[in-house]
Amino acid sequence: MPVKSRPSHALTPALRRLGALGLVLGALGVTQTVMAQQSPPVDPVSRFLSDRGIISAAAAESSTVFIDRMRDTTSDMVLSAMNFLGVPYRRGGSSAEEGFDCSGFTRHIFELSLGMVLPHRADDQAKDKSLMTVKRDELRPGDLVFFNTMRRTFSHVGIYVGEGKFIHAPRSGSSVRVEDMREAYWNKRFTGARRATLPATALDQAATDAKPTLR
């Protein structure tokens, strides 16, 4: 659904794309120092998850199953979303060809990245029982973030990309872009977040695989 009028951005879609990709690399913990080290490179997603306490250091090293599954909901989803930077806003739109509205964009990314088909309306996505509620201070890349932009609690939605930023389709006349949730406009309108959860059986198996073998 559209967001009330905001100042236009002077940056071209190409420049925004470069800046956004830089943001993703930063959020995933890829630094020049790490890349320059002579030792074997550290998987950036493993480092990102471990540094933020999402998984233990031991799990990051030993559970490739868990890392691969978490990558699906972090780097792959965020990078998929970045591919659509600059796609025009279109009310009711849900594809790059016709354009996106806010919930059409998130629906498309979730289906593309996770094979999960969400409702089209933002408020219905917030109420979807397949998603879990997330506190703002526990946000991870790939989480849905909701805002009250039309005097309704869940009238706008985007995808969190890390470091306080989110990607979304803002309003008519604009295009898919990355913005900072900490800006006054978004900060006071934030109303909640949701996360796609992995099946319990998969998490249990990943945790089992990560445990050291006792002899």
From TrEMBL:
Pfam families noted in UniProt: NLPC_P60 (PF00877)
A molecular function GO annotation: cysteine-type peptidase activity
Domain of life: Bacteria
PANTHER family in the cross-refs: MUREIN DD-ENDOPEPTIDASE MEPH-RELATED
NlpC/P60 domain residues: 71-197
The entry's keywords: Hydrolase, Protease, Thiol protease
Family: Belongs to the peptidase C40 family.
Protein's recorded name: Cell wall-associated NlpC family hydrolase
